[in-house]
Write a structure and sequence with these properties.
With about 270 residues, this protein is an alpha/beta fold. It has eleven helices and nine strands.
Length: about 270
C-alpha cells in the first residue's frame, strides 16, 4: 500500500488518498484498483456523480439537510445522537467518522471525547472537508484529523487503531461499502464499537406520503439516491457487519426508512 500525501487545511491535518486510480480515474475498463478494490465502472459511478454533486452542494449542504429534515418531519439530529450514544464513547477516545461530510456529527463526538481525545474525519469530497474545517475553526477544536479518500480504502489511510467508528448516512453512497465495513472493523481496538446509521429507503412512508412528490424531487436533486430503492435488499448491513463484529444490534427508525446497526469488536 502507498502512503498518503499530507496537507493542511486551516488547523486540521488532511491526508489525501494514496490510490492513484481514485485520484486520476484511469480509463482502463478492466482495471481494478489495488488500493480500494473497485473497478473503473464502480469508481465512475461514485466519483462522476457523487463527487460532482457534493462539490456543488457543499457550501449550502447544512441548509439543504435542515430543509429536508423539516419537510420530511425527519428528526435527523435525534438519530445522530442515538448513533453516537450507541458507541459508548469515553473521554480521551479516538473516533473515526466515515463520510463525515460537513461535520454535522462533530459536536456530538467532541462533547464526549473532550480535548484529550482524537477525531479522525474521512470524506471523499474536498469541498465537504473544507466546510467541516470551517466548523473546526469556529469551535476551536484542535484534535481533529481530516482524511480525504475512499471509505473502502480507510485501512490504508488511518495509521492508528480507534476506539469507535461511526458512518452516518454515508455508506449507502459508497460502491465499495462491504470493503469499507471490513476495513473499518479492522481498525477497531478490542471492545470498540461500530455504528452505521443510514437509509433503508428514501421513499416517504406514513403520514408524510402526501409529500412524496416534493420529497422525491429533493431526494433526486440533492440526495443522489433513488427513492424506489430498498437498501436493505441491496445491502445486507447487519449480515456483513456481523462477519467482523459481535453483539450485533439492528434498529428500524422513522417508519422503517432508516436503520441503526451496531456491533462490537471481539
Amino acid at each position: 500500500m502507498g502512503t498518503g500525501k499530507r496537507t493542511m487545511a486551516k488547523n486540521a491535518e488532511v491526508v489525501v488518498s494514496p490510490c492513484p486510480f481514485c485520484l486520476e480515474r484511469a480509463p482502463e475498463t478492466g482495471f481494478v484498483c489495488s488500493e480500494c478494490r473497485l473497478t473503473y465502472q464502480e469508481h465512475a459511478l461514485y466519483t462522476d456523480k457523487a463527487l460532482a454533486q457534493y462539490t456543488v452542494q457543499a457550501p449550502r449542504y447544512d441548509k439543504l439537510a435542515a430543509l429536508f429534515s423539516a419537510v420530511a418531519l425527519y428528526p435527523v439530529q435525534r438519530y445522530r445522537k442515538a448513533a453516537i450514544r450507541a458507541l459508548n464513547i469515553q473521554a480521551g477516545d479516538t473516533v473515526l467518522d466515515i463520510g463525515c461530510g460537513t461535520g454535522l456529527s462533530f459536536p456530538l463526538i467532541e462533547e464526549r471525547i473532550g480535548p484529550e481525545g482524537r477525531l479522525i474525519a474521512l470524506d471523499y469530497t474536498a469541498s465537504m472537508l473544507e466546510q467541516a474545517a470551517n466548523k473546526v475553526e469556529a469551535h476551536g477544536w484542535q484534535n481533529i484529523t481530516f482524511i480525504r479518500g475512499d471509505a473502502a480504502n480507510v485501512a490504508a489511510l488511518v495509521a492508528r487503531p480507534v476506539n469507535a467508528t461511526v458512518a452516518a448516512f454515508s455508506l449507502s453512497l459508497v460502491p465499495g461499502w462491504q470493503q469499507a465495513i471490513a476495513s473499518a472493523a479492522g481498525l477497531l481496538q478490542a471492545g470498540g464499537r461500530f455504528a452505521v446509521l443510514d437509509w433503508q429507503t428514501m421513499k416517504a412512508r406514513g403520514p408524510v406520503r402526501v409529500l412524496s412528490p416534493v420529497l422525491e424531487w429533493l431526494t433526486k436533486r440533492y440526495g443522489l439516491a433513488d427513492p424506489s430503492v430498498n437498501f436493505s435488499d441491496e445491502r445486507p448491513w447487519s449480515e456483513v457487519m456481523g462477519t467482523y463484529l459481535t453483539d450485533m444490534s439492528y434498529r428500524d427508525m422513522h417508519l422503517g426508512t432508516t436503520f441503526l446497526c451496531t456491533g462490537v469488536k471481539g
